[in-house]
Amino acid sequence: MATNASGFFTAPTVPSQRRKIQHSIRIFGSGFPFPEGISKRVFCSSTFEGAEKHVGASASESRSPKLVSKGCKLIGCGSAVPSLKISNDDLAKVVDTNDEWISVRTGIRNRRVISGKESLTTLAVEAAHKALEMAQVDVDDVDLILVCTSTPDDVFGCAPKVQKALGCARNPLAYDITAACSGFILGLVSAYCHIKAGGFKNVLVIGADALSRIVDWTDRGTCILFGDAAGAVLIQACDGEDDGLLSFDVHSDGEGYRHLNAALKENETDDELGSNGSVLGFPPRQASYSCLQMNGKEVFRFAVRVVPQSIEYSLAKAGLPASSIDWLLLHQANQRILDAVSTRLQIPSEQVISNLANYGNTSAGSIPLALDEAVRSGKVKPGHTIAAAGFGAGLTWASTIFRWG
Ligand code: ACO
């Protein structure tokens, strides 16, 4: 198996849709993360063998040897959206806008917004169950859950809540990844690294966001864009020739932070509290997050500049021309961004996956939601090659070339 300059495996064959870990995985042959001569056996303490071991288990007891695999493949997906649908006409009753302006400038016609008992966790769990069902993987065989979100139900993270709600008896490692609309791609990359270097076998990557919670519903420049959703993918360790994650490219630029953020701000009514303590400035003022602030024009320019570059870079790393791509799957932010990127890459519009007319920009949920719809409708088939890219707050952006199934 050849590797390119970045160490990525190249030129894998079209995989068969195998559901279970193959017994033929050759455990010491990878060499991907390790120079010659260094042991390739990895010890990992992330997964407890039984819930009873959780209490009182020493570090050594909970430590179970894991084996480094040579590849990983995406074998199941699922998604969930809230039941409440809000059309452009509904929004026109709240802010000074209209269906024509929104649909012409963005391609968006409807979005879903959480209500009632729905939460980020309920959406994430529904999406994850569907992904596990498609992958035919038992919930107790999941050994890592990554929840990519910028709007968790709890500021400390919601992945452990998702783990609990899924009913994982073995308490797999579960943690959040915060990278806004790039979150899901960074989740895929993290899963890849955990599988290749950490010995994890079944990784659930969930992209879920409820930006409706942080949008200013009086700001017509932003509130028309966003909706809530969750999508999930099950990534499984596999033998090298079945490797489905062919390459990736990841970036951040804090300089662009000012164009898109939802920053913590001190509560100005807390002045008295701040000066009453015996220590000056203590206790600190209470703080809360402000609504999403965005310079739409700058974010638009940024996206159409960096996304094609990043995909071209990922294609080069994978050793593939753009013409070999079956589908372009971008973060669903604006139809005009999708059109500009596909034109630059010379990918025909029929090969561009787009569902933002129905859901708007669902942040980290958008790529797995669109993937799930495309897989379930039969558009995306096992063996298809997909170029995917996320971009957004941070600013962050990332792309990957992967093969489905
Ligand atoms: N309805 C009617 N008129 C509007 C609306 C609205 N909802 N919003 C703005 N306008 C008006 C403006 O006030 C302005 O009027 P003016 O010319 O009299 O001043 C006019 O329409 C044009 O406004 P622009 O902001 O220049 O419109 P633009 O063509 O740039 O489109 C948009 C705005 C849709 C937000 C676009 O800039 C965009 O999509 N940007 C990218 C956003 C994006 O992708 N964000 C990703 C976020 S990902 C994450 O991490 C969360």
From TrEMBL:
Signal peptide (from-to): none
Reaction(s) this enzyme catalyzes, per UniProt: malonyl-[ACP] + acetyl-CoA + H(+) = 3-oxobutanoyl-[ACP] + CO2 + CoA
The entry's keywords: Fatty acid biosynthesis, Fatty acid metabolism, Lipid biosynthesis, Lipid metabolism, Transferase
A biological-process GO annotation: fatty acid biosynthetic process
GO cellular component: chloroplast
Pathway(s) annotated for this protein in UniProt: Lipid metabolism; fatty acid biosynthesis
Domain Beta-ketoacyl-[acyl-carrier-protein] synthase III N-terminal: 175-254
EC number: 2.3.1.180
GO MF, any single term: 3-oxoacyl-[acyl-carrier-protein] synthase activity
Organism domain of life: Eukaryota
Enzyme class: transferase
Domain Beta-ketoacyl-[acyl-carrier-protein] synthase III C-terminal: 315-404
Function: Catalyzes the condensation reaction of fatty acid synthesis by the addition to an acyl acceptor of two carbons from malonyl-ACP. KAS III catalyzes the first condensation reaction which initiates fatty acid synthesis and may therefore play a role in governing the total rate of fatty acid production. Possesses both acetoacetyl-ACP synthase and acetyl transacylase activities.
NCBIfam families: fabH (TIGR00747), PRK09352.1 (NF006829)
Family: Belongs to the thiolase-like superfamily. FabH family.
Protein name: beta-ketoacyl-[acyl-carrier-protein] synthase III
